[in-house]
Design brief:
The protein has 505 residues and is α+β, with helices and mostly antiparallel strands. The chain is built from 17 helices and 14 strands. It has a 6-stranded mixed sheet, sandwiched between helices. Strands 1-2 form a two-stranded antiparallel ribbon. Strands 4-5 form a two-stranded antiparallel sheet. Helix 2 crosses helix 4, helix 8 packs antiparallel against helix 9 and helix 13 packs across helix 14.
Length: 505
């Protein structure tokens, strides 16, 4: 992998005559300015989204409406008692002119009531979302019975609240009403992360219920004698240690929206020492019967463009939240970690690192690694420009000489985690090796150019088997990345993804 060029924005030197000469690199200064501007814009955008998320489901329009109402009341003298009360509490307030006092009282009253309204709506929505009756209510497009008169009478009201002319008649009236109220509170265009503060906390099951389900689970796998022993142990646990652990769990559930997710990520995934390949990672295949183009460079360029559009929608929160049945919002905490995320091996427990400033893709071709910048001077490259870069990589990889061990570097990510951590600490702690590994780990994702031609052939089932095998345990996939793309010579695409980053925080 090529080394990054070392550059400074300015240099100065002192001549023998005592003169100081300063040399400015305009291009580097422009890059510094753009980088600073990008950081500031990102901070401002995050602050804006955080503010919107903190007051959701209240909106700016609702604040304006309240301001108009309070302003009208002030004009007609309906709030003079409030002004008098403020003057008694704050003597300096009475020294202001009447117009300033009116505006100040209106602003403060509007904002306070708006915040209270926001708090009320958020907790009301959280309480409504604890309702799980919609899961068990029959629903679907097939109508098994004629709608009742009550259903017909309430259909216009349901349509006004949900925006849909006809909900399936198989849904019960309470479920329809619940869906309508939730939709009114949520609104028509929530941002991706707006509903996170409105999601109810994961409920803690009762200790007795947990023990009962445990015994039901193990019963088919043990004989009567072993089951009796396990039942006695469960009763002993429920009467002694279980009660104390249950209290700890209740305490954690009060300040954590999901009391199990951090433990699940830590103990089920990050502390696992077995190889990620096969044991944890999963894969996705392309459409078997259709390929838009058999030109690999064009297919990969368009695929990267679509992925980058998806990333922009995540970063700007233009992506809509996910809903069950179009009403119950699902957790979206894992979306920001889709790109620029890598699992870093450690001796005892791995870590998940997310890099916010990544703007390149690490590309593997013919035993060599390349950096493909998809963003240049703040502008995303077009599909045509990306295709030209990919073609250049394809041609250059035919003649470039790989560094020793470069072709097989990704094999370390497929091995046992502690061995990979020790190997990484020994050989990639400094110098060119550290920089090259950093370019891969901090990339948006990894793209592998594979010269095989997989697919589906009814007369040759082994083609599909080899396709799946390549995506599950291919030679050059970087198994630590959040996801890796494999682009085949015939235009087929595949994806291999690491699992731990998908756990919500």
């Amino acid at each position: 992998m090529a080394e990054a060029r070392l550059a400074v924005a300015f240099q100065f030197q002192v001549t023998d005559e005592g003169e100081i000469k300063v040399h400015l690199d305009r291009r580097i200064l422009v890059d510094v300015y753009r980088s600073t501007k990008r950081v500031i814009n990102r901070k401002l955008f995050k602050s804006k989204n955080a503010a919107i998320q903190s007051v959701f489901p209240a909106t700016l329009i609702s604040w304006v409406c309240l301001f108009v109402v309070f302003g009208t009341l002030q004009i007609f003298g309906e709030t003079s008692d409030r002004i008098t009360l403020i003057e008694e509490k704050i003597p300096q307030f009475g020294r202001l002119d009447p117009v300033t006092r009116t505006i100040t009282v209106t602003l403060v009253s509007t904002t306070l009531l708006w915040l209270v309204w926001s708090f009320f709506l958020r907790n009301l929505l959280k309480a409504l979302l604890t309702y799980k009756g919609w899961m068990w209510s029959p629903h679907g497009a097939t109508v098994t019975s004629k709608p009742s008169i009550l259903d017909k009478l309430t259909e216009p009201l349901i349509w006004l609240m949900t925006g849909k002319r006809a909900l399936p008649w198989k849904l019960s009236l309470p479920v329809k009403m619940w869906m309508g109220i939730c939709k009114i509170i949520i609104g028509s265009r929530p941002k991706l992360m707006s509903l996170q503060n409105c999601l109810p906390h994961l409920p803690v099951p009762s200790l007795a219920g947990t023990m009962k389900r445990y015994l039901l689970t193990v019963r088919p796998f043990v004989n009567d004698e072993e089951y009796t022993r396990l039942r006695n142990l469960a009763e002993e646990f429920q009467g002694k240690l279980g009660k104390r652990l249950q209290r700890y769990l209740w305490v954690k559930s009060w300040w954590s929206s999901n009391y199990v997710s951090d433990w699940w990520e830590q103990y089920v995934y990050l502390r696992g020492r077995s190889p990620l390949m096969i044991n944890s990672n999963y894969y996705c295949l392309d459409a078997l019967l259709y390929t838009p183009t058999h030109l690999r460079s064009a297919r990969l360029a368009n695929f990267i463009t679509v992925l980058m559009k998806f990333k922009v929608d995540i970063d700007t929160q233009k992506l809509s939240p996910r809903f069950a049945m179009g009403t119950a919002p699902l957790c979206c905490e894992q979306y920001p970690r889709t790109f620029s995320t890598t699992r870093i091996p450690q001796l005892v427990q791995d870590t998940i690192e997310h890099y916010v400033d990544a703007k390149h893709v690490a590309v593997y071709s013919q035993g060599k690694w390349y950096v493909l910048n998809v963003i240049n001077a703040g502008r995303q490259l077009s599909p045509r420009e990306l295709q030209e870069q990919i073609i250049w990589i394809e041609e250059a990889s035919q003649t470039d000489v790989a560094s020793p061990g470069e072709a097989d570097l990704s094999a370390m990510t497929a091995g046992e985690r502690s061995k990979w951590a020790a190997f990484r600490e020994t050989f990639f702690a400094k110098g060119a090796n550290k920089h090259s590994l950093k370019q891969i780990e901090q990339s948006l994702f990894v793209a592998i150019l594979d010269d095989s031609e997989p697919g589906y052939d009814k007369e040759n089932p082994s083609m599909l088997d080899n396709y799946a095998k390549t995506m599950l345990c291919g030679d050059h996939i970087w198994y630590d990345k959040s996801f890796s793309i494999v682009a085949f010579k015939n235009g087929k695409i595949g994806m291999n993804a690491e699992h731990a980053w998908l756990m919500p925080q």
